[in-house]
Amino acid sequence: MSAGDVTNLWLAEALFRLGGVKFGEFTLGRTTVGSPIYVDPKVLLREPRILARAARLIKSELEAGLAMREPRFHSFDLVAGVPFGGLHLATAYSLASDVPVIYGVPPKMDGGEPKIEGRFKEGESVLIIDDLITTGGSLIETLGILKGAGLAVHDAIVLVDRGQGGGERLKRHGLHLVPLLNLSQMLNFYRSRDMIAEEDFKRSLDYVRTHQADDAGR
């Protein structure tokens, strides 16, 4: 597969083929109740070559965004993976780009004070990487840990935005979000390729359009 073949819609198809998109009725955390669609980007771990391609897609998106006359991203010294879904993506990106990776450890993970794993210097700039966003709670938690350590954070990139208000919430916290895919885009692609049933398509699209998560959760 050439670099040109690794596109956003390639990623949508890869997630589907690996079983990362399911239809039914799902409760995801405290905020997403009765969702007819479940997206699990962690299935990329099943295929290291596909995970590596996803990392190259992130790299291409960042390089293109930074090269624009009005860049879509701030330049950055480090990337930070959001536990746990963003850690493997940030690591894969780090291997593809030679950009060092760190991650913030919330107090709830070890019962102590928030801390950062990895080497960094106060004042360095960090890009946050995660796999999926619903309300943005995990990203905001990571943002707080990084800023608390004296790091500058302006942007985050995620594979999938469920379209339930997370991007707007991050904006209120001063964090600019760039998703590679959103749920509506994925659903339209799957339906156009006859990969999903009309009923699943309509139920899921209606859910996306009518459900905005509250100010908590992932």
Task: Provide the fold topology.
Elements: H1 8-17, E1 21-28, E2 32-39, H2 48-67, E3 78-81, H3 85-97, E4 101-105, H4 107-110, E5 115-117, E6 125-133, H5 137-148, E7 152-161, H6 166-172, E8 176-182, H7 183-192, H8 198-210
Parallel strand pairs: 3-4, 3-6, 6-7, 7-8
Antiparallel strand pairs: 1-2, 4-5
Can you offer a commentary on this structure?
The chain has one domain (3-210): Rossmann fold. Helix content is 41%, strand content 25%. The protein is built from eight helices and eight strands. It has helices at residues 8-17, 48-67, 85-97, 107-110, 137-148, 166-172, 183-192, 198-210; strands at residues 21-28, 32-39, 78-81, 101-105, 115-117, 125-133, 152-161, 176-182. α2 (48-67) crosses α3 and α7 runs antiparallel to α8 (198-210). The protein is globular and about 50 Å long. The relative contact order is 0.16.
Keyword list:
218 residues, alpha/beta, 8 strands, disordered C terminus
Question: Residue-averaged pLDDT, rounded?
Answer: 91
Helix content range = 40-55%
Shape verdict = globular
Q: What Rg, in angstroms, do the CA atoms define?
A: 17 Å
Structural class by secondary-structure content: alpha/beta
At CATH's second level, what is the architecture? 3-Layer(aba) Sandwich
Residue runs with pLDDT of under 50 for 5 or more positions: 214-218
